[in-house]
Amino acid sequence: MPISLLGASTFSPPLMNFHDFRRNATSLLDDPKIKHVAVYGGAKSAYDTVYAFASRAKKVTWIIRASGHGPVYMAPSHIQMGPLKVWLEPLVSMRLLTLFSPCIWGESDGFGWIRQWLHGTRVGRFIVKQSWKKMGGIIVTQTGLRSKGPEVEKLVPKEEAFWYATGLSTLNYGEDIHRYLKDGTVRVVRGDVERLDGKKVVFVGGDETEELDALVCSTGWRWDSGIEFLPKNKHGELGIPSVDYTESQTEMWAELEKTADEEILERFPMLADGPGIGKDDGMILKPNNNGVAPADNEKLIAEPGKQKKEEYTPWRLFRGIAPPANPRRDLVFLGMMMSMQTVLRSEMAALWAYAYLNGCLGPQAQLSNRPRPSSVPSEKEDPGKSSESQSWLFFETALFSRFGRWRYPMGYGSRFPDFVFDAVPYSDMLLQDLGLRTWRKGRNWFGELCSGPYLAGDYKGLIEEWRGLNRKPNIMTGEQKTGRQSL
Questions:
Q1: Whole-number pLDDT of residue 402
Q2: Alpha-carbon span 5 to 268, nearest angstrom
Q3: Cα gap 387→123, rounded to integer Å
Q4: pLDDT at residue number 226
Q5: What pLDDT, on the 0 to 100 scale, is given for residue 374?
Q6: What is the mean pLDDT of each run of 10 residues along the chain (487 residues)?
Q7: Are 164 and 75 in contact (CB under 8 A)?
Q8: What pLDDT score was predicted for residue 220?
């Protein structure tokens, strides 16, 4: 992401994104002239950068936007739960615990009746809320954020853990990073940056840092496609982030999202109480020749012609993979989502994409009771599908996209799929599309819920299983298509 700070082009000390820190880390850390650095951001990458400098006896000013999402949840690798010390990471893949996350595709796991009670009744929602509150409290308590002093307390996340997605991370350092805040090596500033001035960072309100020797920005990345697709009037059909939707495409997606929002909030009323997403959730800054972008629209007006701040649409892909309208079925996007089960998801997503590209996905009759918009603009119709089928694909895509905005407002859900406890039912959904079994633990529902987390070994042999289902030995060569009706 271009560094979006006014004055960046004239900032004299080294200034870089976290992406470039890897290449420059040694020179910065070993340079005796680099004594005071600033790190801008509150995500895991900011934690890593702060630790790298502080552990080398560099003074660090850690800047976290007051108006942003704030610092993420950072937990120890193992947490104490009663008499047990539990490894935290696999918990997100335990099917029993995934039931406590409201999920729009959750019924794919076969436990819709439990989910309906947990998220559709007052008693169930009370249990869900208290469970998440308890988990967040355990993390804050066991990391000592409220007991190690006022400087460390500045790292307490702004919202409950429920609203975060992949911002839930692990303290994987060889020592307690908080000791550098306690001894004064690191100072945390929760404030909004107005501009860079010479060697200083100036905050809204007039406060400023001391003179700095370097500034590392851990403020995210560009999340659009990175490839220019032409013609631009097809962007609404491809589902890629764009500022070039036609008027009819804009109207169509607005109608679809309105209907999707109604369904999401009807099924999961507690999501209506989530923290508001920031005004700039859809903003991507276009860099000028110096690779620098200003901080806000007022600065754009003050410096006309240098920058353009545009509101991009989110990724809108069916199942997070395929364009909702692509008659030739010759394009997929893999990896346009974030989860903590990337390794498990990648093989399934690749297999799903292969089946989609070769017309080997099964019909989705089990979801045909979804409400559909009354009409879809004719320019969106896929000649190979009925109007009803096309409408269903667009609505499912809108539902998938909008769910992230409501479920994970403290993550990236309003831009692209970003989820944690919903990864196992997401895998279930892809497996259902492929005609493969979803329950892979135990011999019954009790075993499925209580047999531990899903790991890579539970999905061993997926490709062979799918090939056997399609029964054609050359299906993976692409020489012959078989068996199943495509979406």
A1: 96
A2: 38
A3: 41
A4: 83
A5: 47
A6: 83 93 90 96 95 97 93 91 85 94 94 95 96 92 93 95 90 94 97 95 94 93 86 94 94 95 96 71 37 33 41 94 90 91 89 92 48 44 54 92 94 92 94 93 87 91 91 46 46
A7: no
A8: 78
Rounded to 5 degrees, what angle do the CA atoms 209, 186, 57 make? 110
End-to-end CA separation in angstroms for the chain: 36
Burial of 174 (C-beta count, 10 Å sphere; 0-12/13-18/19+): exposed
Instruction: Find, among 406, 192, 446, the residue nearest to 296 by Cα.
Output: 192
Look at the block and give the residue holding tokens 């809204």.
204
pLDDT reported for residue 388: 62
- 467 vs 354: CA distance, rounded Å: 12
Instruction: Give residue 298's pLDDT.
Output: 30
The residue behind tokens 């029993």 is 96
Tell which residue, 13, 70, 15, 278, has the closest CA to residue 188: 70
CA distance linking residue 36 with residue 57, whole number of Å: 10
Residue 191, CA distances (Å) to 214, 221, 467 in order: 19, 21, 56
Specify the residue for token string 């805040």: 181
* pTM attached to this predicted model: 0.84
What pLDDT is recorded for position 221?
A: 77
